[in-house]
Structure formats: C-alpha cells, structure tokens
TrEMBL record:
The lineage of its organism: Bacteria, Bacillati, Actinomycetota, Actinomycetes, Mycobacteriales. This is Short-chain dehydrogenase. SUPFAM superfamilies: NAD(P)-binding Rossmann-fold domains. Keywords: Oxidoreductase. Belongs to the short-chain dehydrogenases/reductases (SDR) family. It comes from the Bacteria. GO terms for molecular function: oxidoreductase activity. CDD domains: SDR_c (cd05233). Gene3D superfamilies: NAD(P)-binding Rossmann-like Domain. Pfam families: adh_short_C2. InterPro entries: NAD(P)-bd_dom_sf, SDR_fam.
C-alpha cells in the first residue's frame, strides 16, 4: 500500500468484524494505519485481519467482549504489546441484539419504553453500551498517558442521541451519554487528547438492511435523507479518517459531527408545496 494519511499510526476499531466497524478498519488500513480488528467472533475477526494483511495492510485480531471489563483491559494491553503503542481508538462496538433484535428477530429485543422497561433489561443493555464505553475510554486514556499523553478518540454515536425514537429508550440514553462524554473528555484531557463523535444516521446494516428492499418501508426510509440513498458502512470512512488524522483535524475536538445524509436538518414534511398539492 502507498503511504497514507494515517501512516504507521496504531488504531483500534472496536466491533470491527462487521458493519461500520469493518468498513472503518479496512479504510484505516488502506491509509497506512496498523489496525487492531476486534470483536466477539474469533473466526470472522481472524479472517478479516488475514484479508487486510493479504491486501498489503497491517492488521492483528484480538478477541474482545465489550461487556467484560477484563476483556477491555486486555484489548489495550495486547495492542500495546503487539504494536508498541496506541494512537487512535474508535469506539464503535454496540451490541444491537437487545435494541433492534438479533438473529432471532425482534424476539431478542428487550429495549422498551421507560414505563414498560425492567431493571434487568436496563442493566443488560447498559452493561456493554455504557459500562463498556467507560472501560474502553478509561483504558485507552491510561495507555495514551503511559506513552506520553497524546492520542485520538473517535466515538460512533447515532441520530437517536439527538432525536427521539420510540421503543428504544435505553439505546437513546446510552448514545446521548456518549455525546456528553465526548465533550467532557475533550475539555478534561486537552490539548494532548482529541475526542470527537460521529453521529450516524440510518445505515443499511442489520435489521435496516432488510427494510431497504421492502416495497413500502424502503421508500419511506429513503425519504428520511437528502441524499439518493441511506448510508452504507463505507460512507463513514471519510469522516473517520479525517478525525483520526492529526494533520487534517488538529483544530477539531469535542465535536459531535452528524454524518446522516441531512436527516438531522430536515422537517418531517420537507416540501410544503407537495404536501399541499396532495
């Protein structure tokens, strides 16, 4: 691979065995970063790391479970042991089986309106999504400090952190907390550590991917954005590489940047003339 915008930087992308995380870890490797692929699927993670290495990149797989504090600490420790340092962490991992349904469909979904939510469900969802985020941030900052103090943090949030969405109250709460932590960390650890968040809009992954091709739901989803289609995982690579590059985004920190196809700026009725005519 040719010399890239992230040449020789060491980057962890959590939850990088599929979806947005996979797109980001591939994109970082293409820009010259030495990447860590991590996730719960050892087989898929090892295969992806092998593919990146075969394509001329540098990748190492570490099995990782965001709901396990020891696993999070081991991720940082093994990264430093393998590559000698850590420069960038992307907090992308966010198990969705309890918020959007898993392989069994909505049977796995336990996120509900607050009035119907059990304490058990709240804690089961927040363990990886809130506690896990805390552990990842803490361990990354400890590693940054140990090696001299500098580093870059990129969090992957969601539009539900800014806009209400019924039926997934825990999900909205954890993403809102991520946005708030982004600002606090940027202030607390300036100027050595920059921390920013990508606020993602609709993405054609998981349950949404199947809806895109539905004759009724598909057009409705497309109408939620100002672009020609809803996002695919690769659409977030450019913003992430920009935020990871010290040369390009030195003056950007503490920001929650919408990458949402214009979803966040559009009223529910974007064209009043068309609505009146109907």
């Amino acid at each position: 691979m040719s010399r890239g915008r992230l040449q020789d930087k060491v980057a962890i992308v959590t939850g990088s065995t599929k979806g947005i995380g996979e797109a980001l870890v591939r994109g970082f490797a293409q820009e010259g970063a030495k990447v860590v692929v991590c996730g719960r699927s050892a087989q898929r993670g090892a295969e992806l790391a092998d593919q990146i290495n075969a394509d001329g990149g540098t990748a190492h797989f570490i099995r990782f479970d965001l709901s396990d504090e020891a696993s999070v600490a081991n991720l940082m420790r093994e990264t430093a042991a393998h590559y000698g340092r850590l420069d960038i962490i992307v907090n992308n991992a966010h198990p969705t089986e309890h918020t959007a349904g898993g392989a069994a469909g909505l049977e796995d979904k336990i996120d509900n309106p607050i009035g119907e939510l059990t304490t058990e469900a709240w804690r089961k969802i927040t363990l990886p999504t809130f506690d896990g985020l805390f552990w990842a941030l803490r361990e990354a900052i400890k590693q940054f400090t140990k090696q001299g103090g500098t580093g870059t943090i990129i969090n992957i949030s969601s539009m539900v952190s800014n806009q209400g969405l019924a039926g997934v109250d825990v999900h909205t709460a954890t993403k809102g907390a991520m946005n708030a932590l982004t600002r606090s960390i940027a202030v607390e650890y300036a100027p050595q550590i920059r921390c920013n968040t990508i606020v993602a809009g609709l993405v054609a992954t998981g349950a949404i991917e199947g809806m895109v091709h539905d004759p009724v739901i598909g057009p409705a989803l497309a109408g939620c954005v100002l672009t020609t289609r809803i996002a695919e995982p690769r659409d977030f690579v450019g913003a992430a590489v920009f935020l990871a590059s010290e040369n390009e985004s030195f003056f950007v920190t503490g920001q929650c940047i919408n990458v949402d196809g214009g979803m966040g700026v559009m009223m529910p009725i974007p064209k009043l003339e068309a609505a009146a005519a109907g």
